[in-house]
Amino acid sequence: MARQARSEVTRRKIIDAAVDQFTETGYPATGLGDIIERAELTKGAFYYHFDAKEALAEAIIEEAGTRMLATFRTITGSSSPALENLIHGTFVVTDFTAADKLAWIGMQLLRTFSGLNDAAGRVYGSWLDDLVEQVGHAAAEGDLRSDVDPESAAEVILGSMLGAEALSRATGTDDDLRERVARTWELLLPAMVDDESLEYFREFLARESLRRSPMVGGA
């Protein structure tokens, strides 16, 4: 096996071991020794890739953000109306995050490290860029109120979805996250959507909230 390929395999083992360990014991209670032992590697192999546990957390945040955004983009890239894609995309990402262990841990670390490292800022920034673009498309298609500002709307959508996810975890009821997402959209739609389109998107939301997305990735 070529050196670069072996290096990538080792890095993957470290990340996977860290995700498993963080899932079982949480980030604060996990020591580097736990991860190294679980990955069945030497300290030297670990430090070749990551100089600290925080650097490893940053890598997980980056990968989780990339995976979730890629999942969202598979939906927003369709030819359906932009607002349909936006609503559907948030549900798909919700299901994906529940099913994908790395994404699930990445979301926890994202909250932990918000404002503390560059990875969290980059993930949030990428999400905002995509949401602004999608809201802008919805406005161009005539489905939004004329006074809706895409950037402001994107910030509210992202903040609302992150808040719903955090609340579900804090109350120990992750399984009701889809219901929280649906309720969030029920409140957002009247504030965003043109009166002529509102009933249509309310019906779309009602259907979407009952549909489970095919899981992408593994838990």
UniProtKB/TrEMBL annotation:
GO molecular function: DNA binding
Entry annotated with the keyword Transcription: yes
Matching InterPro entries: ArpA-like (IPR047923), Homeodomain-like_sf (IPR009057), HTH_TetR (IPR001647), Tet_transcr_reg_TetR-rel_C_sf (IPR036271), TetR_C (IPR011075)
Domain of life: Bacteria
Keywords on record: DNA-binding, Transcription, Transcription regulation
Domain annotation HTH tetR-type: ranges: 8-68
Pfam families: TetR_C_13 (PF16925), TetR_N (PF00440)
DNA-binding region, residues: 31-50
NCBIfam families, sorted: ScbR_bind_reg
Name of the protein: TetR family transcriptional regulator
Lineage of the organism: Bacteria, Bacillati, Actinomycetota, Actinomycetes, Mycobacteriales
